Amino acid sequence: MSEYTDRAEKNMGKCLDTLKANFARVRTGRANAQILAPILVDYYGQPTPITQLAAVKVPEASMLVVEPWDKSSLRAIEKAIESSDLGITPSNDGVCIRLPFPKPTEERRRELVKECKELAEEARVAVRNVRRDVNGKIERDEELSDDEQSREKKSVQKLTDSYVAKVDELLKTKSAEVMEI
User: Fold this and answer.
1) What residues form the membrane-spanning segments (predicted)?
2) What letters, b where the CB count within 10 A reaches 16 and e where it falls short, cover 85-107?
3) How far apart are CA 37 and CA 28, in angstroms?
């Protein structure tokens, strides 16, 4: 592999990682600890991620349990979850916070699939942007002959096709997961 395909693969891999992270935040009927990752708690005046303040467990498929290590932060964690746009009402029992994940309706699942398709399209565009940038660098490289430039571009195109196929496969898997009752 050349330096161009290495650079393209590295950047396309980042696009795929971003898509996986975005898919993890799409709320299905299943409990997923990743959904709490972007929520920050005001802990002694510092915005702190929930995962640094508590153990997040999944005791059953439709329930998350947040157990803070410092019990005095329980109320702050509950407040942060309530003020986030998760749409889940936390229940505080004085020891831990339980987050029940209700099963989405058929209509809501279709909306979630549409959201997933939009995220996948953004990832495809990002992968194609990587291809465009790398192809531009190949064209500006005066040390490469026309044949070498053509070979490099074909190699980058193959890589692009494989990453777009990976995005499509991730979308297919996530859509099936969302539509599952």
Assistant:
1) none
2) ebebebebeeebbebebeebeee
3) 16
For 53, how many CA atoms within 13 A lie in the half-sphere containing its CB?
28
Token match 């490289």: residue? 141
100 secondary structure, DSSP code: E
> What are the structural domains of the chain?
3-25+105-179 (1.10.132.20), 33-100 (3.30.1360.40)
What CA–CA distance (Å, rounded) separates 35 from 21?
10
Cβ contacts of 14 within 8 Å, gap of 6 or more? none
In the predicted structure, residue 30 carries a pLDDT above the cut 80: no
**Secondary structure of residue 1 in the 3-state scheme:** coil
Cβ pair 163, 124 in contact under 8 A: no
With 0.70 as the threshold, say if the pTM is over it. yes
